[in-house]
Design a protein that fits this description.
Layout: E1 2-10, H1 14-31, E2 35-40, H2 45-51, H3 57-65, E3 68-73, H4 88-98, E4 103-109, H5 122-125, E5 129-135, E6 147-150, E7 156-159, H6 166-181, E8 186-191, H7 197-210, E9 217-222, H8 223-232, E10 239-242, H9 244-257, E11 265-269, E12 275-279, H10 296-308, H11 313-328, H12 346-359
Parallel strand pairs: 1-2, 1-3, 3-12, 5-10, 8-9, 8-10
Antiparallel strand pairs: 4-5, 4-11, 6-7, 11-12
Helix pairs in contact: 1-10, 1-12, 6-7, 8-9, 10-11, 11-12
The structure holds 3-isopropylmalic acid and magnesium ion.
Magnesium ion (MG) binds next to helix 9.
Length: 365
């Protein structure tokens, strides 16, 4: 069976990190006898420039028929002047909605080799393994009405709508419990139920879903407390499930615990296990085109792609092992380098992973 995979390099450092991830994907496919067909399309700012919209029709057609998608990043200062509805980020939101990618999995795992790169004390983060399950196609990101309007008194006001249907909460909660059952069996649901009715409903529905998972413990935290606990004692968490905007914020915090946001992959899945895989980091326009970006988050996103959309767990583990090997070897891009470490570039890091992969299980090309 052949798997069609669509690459969406996007903006900023996106093309550089996707190029390295592509090399890894092609190599691991060879090593594990996976037939893949790669295609490429525009998303984000590059799509605005080349095709006039952030999620153009050509990309839509290719995206809908792909088994999996690998995205770099979108956005950059050259598009900052555009009205909100035309910005590159809207392309990302549009593709998430179009493919119904409601479940965003953001693991925050600390590679022991990087314990010193964390801004927290090594003992607080050693062995850290958190999975953030973020609802991705609802909440305040998508709620209507939204906009900026002029009031009767002439002053302008901005407004958004924070809204969740029960079915939206139910399906993300269900997935969080299923995943927790395969891990440490603990779910923490994050809300702001002391203030926001929408998250009162969230808490109620998550509690109801929990009744079907006798082996999984559930607790609830307000988002402010969750943010504090994440930097106070992060290892208390197993699976964190939360809505779109809280998940956006907490996943950046969790990322930093692991040393660098340049290390964290993500998977956005729909009910059919088609998925969009992307690094948690953004397009980093300040270092774009300079061979300085860390490609490991995108390479680890390839591992998630193999595991969740291609059902190739062995190949996924091989990619993860190769990343661990290059860290053991001392390969460091600038973002994960400690003082005095030799720093390598994006391409050299990709090459190091390729070499490490080749040796895995002695399985030569
Ligand atoms: C993310 C990003 C996006 C989001 C932006 C680029 C729209 O921050 O994937 O976390 O807010 O979801
Ligand atoms: Mg974000």
């Amino acid at each position: 069976m052949s798997h069609s995979i669509l690459l969406l390099p996007g903006d900023g450092i996106g093309p550089e990190v996707v190029a390295q991830a592509r090399r890894v994907l092609e190599r691991v496919a060879d090593l594990y006898n996976l037939t893949i067909e790669l295609d490429e399309a525009n998303l984000g700012g590059v799509a605005i420039d080349r095709e006039g919209s952030a999620y153009p029709e050509t990309t839509q057609a290719k995206a809908r028929s792909a088994a999996a998608l690998l995205l770099g990043a979108v956005g950059g200062p050259q598009w900052d002047g555009l009205p909100a509805a035309q910005r590159p980020e809207r392309g990302l939101l549009a593709i998430r909605a179009d493919l119904d990618l409601f479940a965003n999995l953001r693991p925050a795992i600390l590679f022991p080799q990087l314990a010193d790169a964390s801004s927290l004390k090594p003992e607080l983060v050693a062995g850290l393994d958190i999975l953030i399950v973020r609802e991705l196609t609802g909440g305040i990101y998508f709620g209507e009405p939204r906009g900026i309007r002029t009031r009767e008194d002439g002053e302008r006001e901005g407004y958004n709508t924070y809204i969740y249907r029960e079915s939206e909460i139910e399906r993300i909660a269900q997935l969080a419990f299923e995943l927790a059952a395969k891990r440490d069996g603990r779910v923490t649901s994050v809300d702001k139920a002391n203030v926001l009715e929408v998250t009162q409903l969230w808490r109620e529905v998550v509690t109801r879903v929990a009744e079907n998972f006798a082996g999984v413990d559930l607790d609830h935290l307000y988002v402010d407390n969750a943010a504090m606990q994440l930097v106070r004692e992060p290892k208390q968490f197993d699976v964190l499930v939360t809505g779109n905007i809280f998940g956006d914020i907490l996943s950046d915090t969790a990322a930093m615990l692991t040393g660098s946001i340049g290390m964290l992959p993500s998977a956005s899945l729909n009910a059919l296990s088609a998925g969009l895989y992307e690094p948690v980091h953004g397009s980093a326009p300040d270092i774009a085109g300079q061979d300085r970006a860390n490609p490991l988050a995108t390479i680890l996103s390839v591992a998630m792609l193999l595991r969740y959309s291609l059902n190739a767990g062995n190949a996924a583990a091989a990619v993860e092992a190769a990343v661990s090997t290059v860290l053991d070897q001392g390969c460091r891009t600038a973002d994960i380098a400690a003082e005095g470490d030799a720093v390598i570039g994006t391409e050299a890091m990709g090459t190091a992973v390729l070499k490490a992969l080749k040796g895995h299980e002695g399985n030569e090309l």
